[in-house]
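Slide 14.
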Amino acid sequence: MYKSEEDFLRNYNKDEYEKLSLTTDILIFSISDNKTTNYRKLNEKLFSVLLVKRNTYPFKDKWCLPGGFVRIDENLEDAPKRILKDETNIKDIYLEQLYTFGDINRDPRMRIVSTSYMALIDKNRLNDTINNDASWFNIKKSEDNNIVTITLENDIDCFSFKIKKILKEKTTDRYKFEIIENNKIAFDHCLVILSGIERLKNKLEYTDIVFNMMPEYFTLGELQQVYEIILGKKLLDPAFRRIIANKVEKTEIIKTGGGHRPSYMYRYKNI
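Slide 15: predicted structure.
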């Protein structure tokens, strides 16, 4: 037995402790304009996620979130910034911690725990040009009898995966997720993507995260489109006005042009 803290630190056998590795995965969502040819309609909003195509095993040629191993001499919060810059060439964006994924069999190489981070940006306003292996995929989500289908599509690829939502705690309405169909996404990143979408929906209610990707001035119609695409449903105008009543302020700027009626522009209050 060890006689003191100093004795323990001097003599304990490090090999007695099983080792695991730590990675970080970065979930970058974007809401941006898809320009319409009909001048009487607002530009359609696209909800997208940034993926990287793997060029090594395991899961070679499959898509994954930007991610990598945390260095032994690196703070956890510094790793996603470095990895995001290396893998996608995106930098200087705000990231917040999403969740830690630690299923025993989540990586075929070894026992790996991953701490994921999330951000919401407007890809059309990015100053950085993304790397060739990175690509934006537009997201379409549907749910039927607790089976969630997510379709990811861009100019090069289109595929879907399915996840089952299993009620974990009835009193708190918490679910756990189980992948039941997936052919194109590496590791357990299907779970990370759905977890991020669910977190984002919840954060709309109690935070102002949506304004991270809004321009300084916007119409209420444009803001409502963003809420609707994240929530995955249409909002009645009165309900939407109640949600954002204390978050925005009306300006004297009026948006004109196209086939739309002139509309007052609003801006984020930043209380």
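Speaker note: The longest strand covers residues 21-34.
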